[in-house]
Amino acid sequence: MNLLKDLPPKPLPLPRTAETLGAELRRMLVAGALDLPLPGGGTVLRRWRELAGFGRRDLALARLAEGHADAVAILAEAAQAPAPLSLYGVWASKSSGTGAELHNGRLSGTVRFCSGLTGLDRALVAAGDQLVELDLSTAGVERHPDAWQSVGMDASDSGDVVFDDVPVDRLVGPPGWYVARRGFVLGGTGVAAVWLGGAAGVLDSVRETLRAKADDHQLAHLGALHAALRGSEALLASAAATIEQSPSPGLLNDTCRASVERTARDVVDLAPRITGAGPLCRDRRFAQQVADLQVFIRQHHGERDLAALGRALLEEAGA
């Protein structure tokens, strides 16, 4: 089974806003479209295929769908059930010294890069080394969407959340469990599947632009991007066959993420060079696709993550 489906999914109609994406996400929840196979039991390729499809359709929608699916998988790994018909997110950023803290069962602090600020029902929040679940309608949850100034991923309803002595509903796993569990690695590779879908979506738009006319330089760039995309797809598909059973899945996860991030960066760089300024300035969907992809892949920390990968390779060689 290929990771990318043969036919691209139908994109969302324009205008594309946080409100329209939130409504589509709610519709998908009710229809069961967010009920992805849980990691484990040989289902991870199917899971990643669905995530890639979300990304190919719309990266901001995929960010919200992946967050919900990740939360459901985390709860399942903790032997807990999600609240029925509730949209979830996972808010775990500790950017620039920010982050939430838990004191006597109450949550305080600021968490950045929270997607689904106004549309989600519940969230799993990292509070120090403890993961907690809370109802986002609880008093003391202050949302700051104006903190998000980027055009890229602007419809993902993202921003900062300030928690002011908010009671939590329940603890999810023991202290330190959230990052130590196997599912943390599988979730990271699932995000790479979303990036791959987003890159494929940009390439879909490039191909449509070139159907009327293309010169050899444009075709050469298109062929190079297609080869890079299929290479990363093949790596992810191969990883899916072994990563669930691997005793040390971290190295494989980091390799997959690095490969897809590199491919996506090439797409961000070369796609506008293929099309020229016209589509960037006159095609809202294409311009948004490129901007979204550029922002979303920065969940990969560039040279810092590559250095960690290189260090792991040396340690493996010396073992």
From TrEMBL:
Database matches in SUPFAM superfamilies: Acyl-CoA dehydrogenase C-terminal domain-like, Acyl-CoA dehydrogenase NM domain-like
Residues annotated as domain Acyl-CoA dehydrogenase/oxidase C-terminal: 176-295
Keywords tagged on the record: FAD, Flavoprotein
GO terms for MF: oxidoreductase activity, acting on the CH-CH group of donors
Keyword check for Flavoprotein: yes
Gene3D superfamilies membership: Butyryl-CoA Dehydrogenase, subunit A, domain 2, Butyryl-CoA Dehydrogenase, subunit A, domain 3
InterPro entries: Acyl-CoA_Oxase/DH_mid-dom_sf (IPR046373), AcylCo_DH-like_C (IPR036250), AcylCo_DH/oxidase_C (IPR009075), AcylCoA_DH/oxidase_NM_dom_sf (IPR009100)
Pfam family, one: Acyl-CoA_dh_1
Similarity field: Belongs to the acyl-CoA dehydrogenase family.
Protein name in UniProt: Acyl-CoA dehydrogenase, C-terminal domain
Species: Amycolatopsis saalfeldensis
